[in-house]
Amino acid sequence: MPIPYLTLAQVEAIARAAHRTQTDKAGRPYAEHLAAVAEGVRVRGGSEEQMAAAWLHDAVEDGALSRQWLDEAPLSRRVKDMVLAVTKRDGEDLVAYTGRILATPGALLIKESDLAHNADPDRLAVLEPTTRTRLTEKYAQVRGLLGLDGDAGSVERRDQANPATG
User: Fold this and answer.
1) Helices 94-103 and 107-118 sit at what angle, rounded to 10 degrees?
2) Single pTM value for the model
3) Cα separation of 151 and 89, whole Å?
């Protein structure tokens, strides 16, 4: 008999517990960022699998959960693939990173929501000017590589790469 997948509420609880000691660059509890990304996915029409991946999007990258945990977790292959797609790898350049996101169904919506929260002017305003400028430029570069720069073709690419169901 197959093991049932974790519910979205269970994934949220695991993510909150895994990141409980972490704070963001502004000193806020890291779980606030995870909640904002998951909510951003929801309001953009994302599926429950995409919302689950949003809760876990930084877990492996930040070392809050291990890659082994993700591999063994009772999550769908799709959730695991999306989490791994948005997980930066040591030494990886942005072109390879963004290419993997674009090649993984559902992952672009998670990264779009992540970038939107990271680039929120209220969040950036509390950072020192040098850090704020560096991050603003980085987020703009990633948005451009992902085709999230607002041109007509970017919407079509986003829709093709991020089916809400499937």
Assistant:
1) 130
2) 0.88
3) 29
Phi–psi pair at 26, nearest 5 degrees: -95, 0
Return the pLDDT at 1.
62
Counting Cα atoms < 13 Å in the Cβ hemisphere of 153 gives 4
Q: Of 28, 31, 5, which Cα lies nearest the Cα of 18?
A: 31
Bridge partners (DSSP) of residue 29 are 23
Cα–Cα distance, 13 to 105 (Å, whole number): 25
- Map residue 81 onto helix, strand or coil: helix
pLDDT in tens, 103-131: 999 999 999 999 999 999 989 999 999 99
Question: How many Cα atoms within 13 Å fall on the side-chain side of residue 146?
Answer: 30
Sequence-distant (6+) residues with CB within 8 A of 22 are 29, 30, 62, 64
Average pLDDT of the chain is 90
Name residue 26's amino acid.
A
C-alpha–C-alpha distance, residues 38 and 51, integer Å: 5
